[in-house]
Amino acid sequence: MPELTKKDEARMLRYRGQSLRLLQDAMDEIRGNRWLRCEELLWGSLTLAVKGVALGRGRELDGLKAVEEYASELGQESRDRRIREAFTKLASFGETADRVRESRIRADHLVATLEDVTGAVERLWDMAPGGDLLSRFVEGEFDELDEMDRGSGGAD
Known about the structure:
- The chain is mostly helical.
- It has one domain (6-135): Nucleotidyltransferases  domain 2 (Four Helix Bundle (Hemerythrin (Met), subunit A)).
- It has helices spanning 6-31, 35-56, 64-78, 81-91, 93-101, 108-127, 131-138, 143-151.
- The protein is elongated, with a radius of gyration of 18 Å.
- The two termini are 31 Å apart.
């Protein structure tokens, strides 16, 4: 894998933070039965996750079609159906949400899509360079290390 510049590392952290925030917001929206807003948030989260993996591998993706195709490639490479089918499932999310609102079907289909897309986003971030390191950084586990450095004046 290519060596990332500091700028690319910062961009990847930003993508990851935004992606995970959008994913959490989508879960909050679905709890409030706001399905269409949930769909938008899932699209954003998934798109940023795919772009983050691409960036970590030295690729720039331009446009939704390129992102969807790369997600399909990543799904095939990792043999992960959730990644491979995530955009396809999201494409029918709105129609399914309409049918749920009209009470023609239960919300189980939407919940299953949410679970699949959530799993795909988590798996994609695991595939990104430094996946575990990124997770801990985003979750704030390095805050105490920063505090220790400030407390000791940063001297080694």
